[in-house]
Amino acid sequence: MTNPLYHSFFERHRGSDALLMVLEDGSRLSYRAFLDMASRFANALVETGVQPGDRVVLQVPKSAEALAIYAACVQSGSVMVPLNTGYTPAEVDYFVGDAQPKLVICDPKSQEGLQSICENHGAQLETLDAFGGGSFAERSVKLPETFPTVERSIDDLAAFLYTSGTTGRSKGAMLTQGNLLSNAEALVQTWRFTSSDVLFHALPIFHTHGLFVASNVTFLAGSSMIFLSSFKAQQAIEHLPKATTMMGVPTFYTRLLDEPRLNRELVQHMRLFISGSAPLLAETHLAFEERTGHRILERYGMTETNMITSNPYEAERRAGTVGHPLPGVEIRITDPETAAPTPAGEIGMIEVRGPNVFIGYWKMPEKTAEEFREDGFFITGDLHQLDDAGYVQIVARSKALIISGGYNIYPKEIELLLDEQEGVLESAVIGVPHPDFGEGVVGVLVPQAGCTLDVEQIAETLKPKIARFKQPKQLFVLPELPRNTMGKVEKNVLRDQYAQVFLH
After folding, report:
1. What are phi and psi of 21, to 5 degrees?
2. Neighbouring residues of 388: CB distance < 8 A, sequence distance ≥ 6
3. Cα 481 vs. chain centroid, distance in angstroms?
4. Of 21, 308, 345, 374, whose CB neighbour count within 10 A is largest?
5. Which neighbouring-strand residues pair with 392?
6. Which residues lie across from 404 on neighbouring strands?
7. Which of 113-117, 188-192, 394-398 has the lowest mean pLDDT?
8. pLDDT tens per residue, range 392-413
9. 3-state SS of 14-81?
10. What DSSP state is assigned to residue 101?
11. Element (H, E) at 432
């Protein structure tokens, strides 16, 4: 097999008129048409100067064309680097400077803001809009619908995804062909996906959930998707009767529960509801089961590891747990201080080893070395324990991490920006309960002596610097931050103090 990922996901469907996706406007796209388009795009990549191993940065609206660029990157041997569409030009500047791509493809609406950035970093800029138009699409129109697939091995880099860190500097998690293929194979097996499935897909495709879980599983199983630009509860109600499976984040399910039309009859033909990217509240589990008769299957993963565990398909799906390790994946629970294995039932750090685990952080060998044990286990930073039946329970995500609407947010990145603001002595950023997003971002500011802070002005100053989903939903001012005897900020005290901010 000369290109395992392309062969497994795409090549075997070439020439097939089987349905791949139903789009928002009701149009239908076959595997044949999708792969012909992907090959045209692969030719377009080569035409722009992209060679095997080169990075292609993609910051575009969700569309069939955007997904086809992923297939084109796999076929051409280039490395796809998807970016959140909410990132500001200032954030994109860092990513382009770090990834050093040959090509950046963006929404035409962003072209003006990114042109000088790409020029400064020596990257070519092309465009693709939400409807499949733009300079990159135009470039490909008359190009061949065939492309000589570039030879790759399972060890070759296929993509990397940026994940923020506790230092505020984003890290590119490098994923190989083998990482992506092995995880898709494990998920198809675990979740019993077949060519008969129709997946309700309303997730973004710049994130591992929508791209490397939902889409890869579909390609490997040869199934089809209802492929929507974003999640809207009323729209979901209309489409679910035509689906067999759904993947979502907790926000999807809480919004569905707000819809009076959600009932057993509406989803009687559904086979499986899956949730991930953030913990699902036990009460959401119970409320959804009561309304629909379906028990949501919760799983656990992260950017660096793809999916790690899953509740079982046939056995009990336990609320508040993320199940057992996937086939081929090893986990262990260790003491965060000593790295020694913890006794059964005790809380500890989860470590993971397997073909799903990334090979390291882009251009960060020291950071990579810090995150791996000598025996190859990756240190997730998340605290877990095993229950009496061996189900993994998430006790706490990486201490600094906030998960809002399924997106990971690291407080340090925001704190660095807040600390730069005139009159700010120091800041602390926390996540507190939010009825829709799971957690909402709150910033707490301490003013310099004699200064009065204008929180509204500070909030405005942040807008062009960080993506909207990272921006604090509320800013508060305190004379000082609570600290322990060692001088460390007690964020748990702040979380308690502001726990009800969004719940009134």
Report:
1. -150, 145
2. 345
3. 32
4. 308
5. 386
6. 407
7. 394-398
8. 988 766 656 788 888 878 888 8
9. CCCCCEEEEECCCCEEEHHHHHHHHHHHHHHHHHCCCCCCCEEEEECCCCHHHHHHHHHHHHHCCEEE
10. -
11. strand 424-434
Residue 474 makes CB contacts below 8 A (sequence gap 6+) with 440, 442, 443, 498, 501, 502
28: phi then psi, degrees, rounded to nearest 5: -120, 140
- pLDDT for residue 111 is more than 60: yes
% helix, strand, coil for the chain, step of 5: 30, 25, 40
Helix axes 411-419, 455-462, angle to 10 degrees: 120
Separation between Cα atoms, residue 204 and residue 36, nearest integer Å: 23
Q: Is 315 exposed, middle or buried (0-12, 13-18, 19+ CB in 10 A)?
A: exposed
Nearest to 156 by CA among 142, 176, 175: 176
Pairing of strands 19-23, 28-30: antiparallel
Q: pLDDT tens digits for 81-101?
A: 999 999 999 999 999 999 999
Do 151 and 3 contact (CB within 8 A), yes or no?
yes
CA 302 → CA 164, 178, 276, 347, 440, distances in Å? Answer: 12, 16, 10, 19, 20
Domains in the chain (CATH in brackets) are 4-10+31-152 (3.40.50.980), 198-396 (3.40.50.12780), 403-497 (3.30.300.30)
Cα distance between residue 382 and residue 348, in whole Å? 8
The answer to whether the beta carbons of residues 332 and 351 sit under 8 Å apart is yes
Residue tagged 């077949």 (tokens): 194
Structural Rg of the chain based on CA atoms = 23
DSSP-derived pairing of the beta strands 124-127 and 103-106: parallel
